[in-house]
Amino acid sequence: MKSWILAATITAFFASGCATTTSPTGRTQIVGGVSQQELNQLGAQAFAETKAKEPASKDAKQNAYVNCVVNALVQQLPPDWRSIGWETQVFVDPEPNAFALPGGKVGVYTGIFTVAKNQDQLAAVLGHEIGHVIARHHEERITRQLGTQQLLGLGAAVAGAKYGQTGSDLVGQLGGLTAQGLFLLPGSRTQETEADVVGQRLMADAGFDPRQAVDLWQNMLAASSSRPPEWLSTHPDPQARISELKRSSPGLVPTYEAARKAGHVPKCG
């Protein structure tokens, strides 16, 4: 694509309401493709659809355990994030997974208890998921996808004008693969790494042992039968992820110890 077309498209994209901001780790983000109200609506809709599909756990002890961990983490968020009215639901599903959505919706699958062996490891999972929300990763991803779609659409139009429908289709197909492999997926891996950092800090602030994040991801790795090559994945290489969490753990131990001395001593289970 000619440089002036690319520049014009990027300019138009920012003019449509997008802007740059700084993530909790100091990374520059492009956001603004969707409003916070729209994000919250999308989160509520996705949560409602999950509740309609997945059976809810009726285990009172299990629900209290998860809510205790979520509440302890949420209490350490900045006031604007803490006050959005967080909602938690435990789903009966063997998949070892959890999620957090814009608008403060947290879902936990019962399969997560097979890898999160204690409250600290569960806090590592949920801190990571909440980290995606407070780092505005959903907004960033939607904004990025909208921008990519605009660029590919314009590129296909230019190719179509010069080479006909065949050229337009080829640019659309190859451009989509290029964007996915070189832009969208690497961005997702960046977000996953950032959520690890934010989540580990959050669990330490809440009085959960940050060293347990290492054990959690080791358990996750042991439970995983296979995964795609890193360059085709939205997640970082597991061993690299574990090494990074292990490297950052000692520096967060003083935060964890100070939190507990200040009275943040979660007793969830």
TrEMBL record:
<dbReference type="GO" id="GO:0004222">
    <property type="term" value="F:metalloendopeptidase activity"/>
</dbReference>
<dbReference type="InterPro" id="IPR051156">
    <property type="entry name" value="Mito/Outer_Membr_Metalloprot"/>
</dbReference>
<keyword id="KW-0482">Metalloprotease</keyword>
<dbReference type="GO" id="GO:0051603">
    <property type="term" value="P:proteolysis involved in protein catabolic process"/>
</dbReference>
<protein>
    <submittedName>
        <fullName>Peptidase</fullName>
    </submittedName>
</protein>
<feature type="signal peptide">
    <location>
        <begin position="1"/>
        <end position="21"/>
    </location>
</feature>
<dbReference type="GO" id="GO:0016020">
    <property type="term" value="C:membrane"/>
</dbReference>
<keyword id="KW-0645">Protease</keyword>
<dbReference type="InterPro" id="IPR001915">
    <property type="entry name" value="Peptidase_M48"/>
</dbReference>
<dbReference type="Pfam" id="PF01435">
    <property type="entry name" value="Peptidase_M48"/>
</dbReference>
<keyword id="KW-0479">Metal-binding</keyword>
<keyword id="KW-0862">Zinc</keyword>
<comment type="similarity">
    <text>Belongs to the peptidase M48 family.</text>
</comment>
<dbReference type="GO" id="GO:0046872">
    <property type="term" value="F:metal ion binding"/>
</dbReference>
<keyword id="KW-0732">Signal</keyword>
<keyword id="KW-0378">Hydrolase</keyword>
<feature type="domain" description="Peptidase M48">
    <location>
        <begin position="61"/>
        <end position="247"/>
    </location>
</feature>
